[in-house]
Amino acid sequence: MPASPYLLAAALVPQTHAEFVHALRERLQDGARALTYFGEKLADGTVELTALLQDATGLSVLRGHAPADAQVPALTVQFPQLHIFEREIHEQTGLAMPGHPWLKPVRSPVAPMGSYPFFQMEGKEVHEVAVGPIHAGVIEPGHFRFMCLGEQVHHLEIQLGFQHRGIEELVVQRPLAHAVTLVETIAGDTSVGHTWAFCRALEALAGVEVPVEVEIVRGIALELERVAMHLTGLSGIATDIGFLQGGTTWGRLRTTLINLSMQLCGSRFGRGWLRPGGVRFGVHSEDAQRLPTVLGQFQRDMNTITALFQTSLSVAGRLHEVGTVTADQAKELGLVGMAARASGLDLDMRIALPGAAFERLPVALSKQLTGDCWARAGLRIDEIARSIAWIQRALAVPGIDQVPLQPLGALPPDALAIGICEGWRGETIHALQTDGQGKLRHFKAQDPSLRNWFGLAHALRGNEISDFPICNKSFDLSYCGNDL
Amino acid sequence: MLRSLRVRISQGRQYIGDLRAASPANFRGLPVIASTPCATDCRACADACPTHAFTALDPLQIDLGRCIQCGDCEPACPEKKLTFSNACHTAAVRREDLLISAQRPTPPPIAVSQALKQQFGRSLRLRSVSAGGCNGCESELNAVGNVNFDLGRYGIEFVASPRHADGLVISGPITRNMAEPLQLCFDAMPRPRFVLAFGACAISGGLFADAPQVERQFLDQNVPILFIPGCPPHPLTLVNGLMDLLGIALP
Fold it and tell me: Which of A2, A215, A324, B164 could bond B159 through an S-S bridge, CB–CB 3.0 to 4.6 Å?
């Protein structure tokens, strides 16, 4: 199978749910990684199960079918990487999943938010700290419940769902041409990452192949977004540890970068730039000539502040060995993206499934080994430099100024298409399923945050509760990307 | 020490001196409707619009409170009547002021509220609540306090506790799961207090206006005193709206 970041599967013949679970278990035992696993409740009440797996041979899809009253054994105990998927399937389809250790709601509260039964610990000196949903800063809502012994966190339970807007259903209900604007708001800080995954899925479905120049422009959009959001994160970490020069300098460097996105597409968040069939804006030759100077100055300023940050003893003291996730833990929990790479995993879809843009201009893997807040900050600094270098090369690609938008034809019936994009947080995955008439029947969006939130909970164990803000900022996860 | 100085020198002077005159290059901000006639029975722009922002077709009228500035109407119009300018003076104190047309291309200028100026003109504390916001609006709200816009210079700052807040800035369409926390936050604010709606989602529901997961009764009972349109609004849209309303640094 070619290493493409998309996949089209027409007329999949589903296995029975027993066969499906058996096959899924075998593939995972053989070392495959589950990229996504979701369920769709069909009109007759039965449930269609879909798993997307990746191994040395590439991507493959498993499809199963379960009656409404089926007992589909959960595999989470054996493969913890599936825990969030099985919770979500149970929540979205009502399918019984016996053997799952913790079918906690993912985003739809079973009880009013205020009366949710959190995990409890007992002991004379055990106490709980409740934070949120509304936090101190200008940030999205979510609830954190810390079980502490003194200052030390034994367990953190994260309760999300406050942001649930029902975006998956809306994409199916609305005209297909309007879907992309909804997709741009799945996680507004990852507009490009989500939209590219969506475009890849829809273009695979519609049989449209976009030229490499279009993919290069999309790559520029994606890497600008990655740099801007890494700067936001670094600025936040610096502010949280009282390293104010980092906070302000990275903050203003971010302004430079998002204003470049605005210069190229009219939006500081890359909105309205990518559209199924291509891009709405190419890179004008004046911009392609001007930007390298701006980016060169940016990287010099970046190096100046980074040198100060990485040699400051107070920074090192606050970030080393705080919020550690080991490589084994990251793999077992199914962490993805920068959280996985900071723990030493070789996991970057731009390298595993490059597509035309990253095949033409490959990007090197950034990786750290210690899995702590220092590693997650260092990884972001490293990725900024690599993204800037990539954009510099991309701007020199001829033909990126004139990139026509191709029309999409009719969609094939009973087909499944999946698009993947390595956004700044990690792999965003979109799945589109058509019905017998070639109309969109089901949409599944997956932000990397869905999988990584549990990594944050894990990172807090045994840490001081006062270190939560920097741990949280170092993971930098999306609330609405999880809540959809 | 030398490294620190080097960073300080690299930083240069970043603040925008005259915020009212600032004009973000190539920002797709305000839809501009040409006064040329439309093709007969044409509704291409309305069909292309994902938020039903075209509230009248003859003559064309756009509700900035719904417009998400996606720009998808621009290539859809066969008469090339629609373009976008980078205007940021688009905030309004009344919801209906956000309706624009070829005859009235921008919302009317905001008059200084003497009452608000007296109470909050030199110190305004805002509490942000994201109620389904996608982190686009939240990012731009954070930006108004950064070294570029630096609204703190006029005593306008975001605070952690609703107890310390004068104004509640809502972003997002108000999800059902956030309706109660939002109300609790507002109830915790001392009087006098008011509400600002930041972004298309907060003003009209935006892309989520008719979504079953949205519950917007809070805004029926607490009508915002300032509507800041956009998706997300440019920080300058909020900055200009607040400075005009509070009579700050008037020319």
Answer: B164
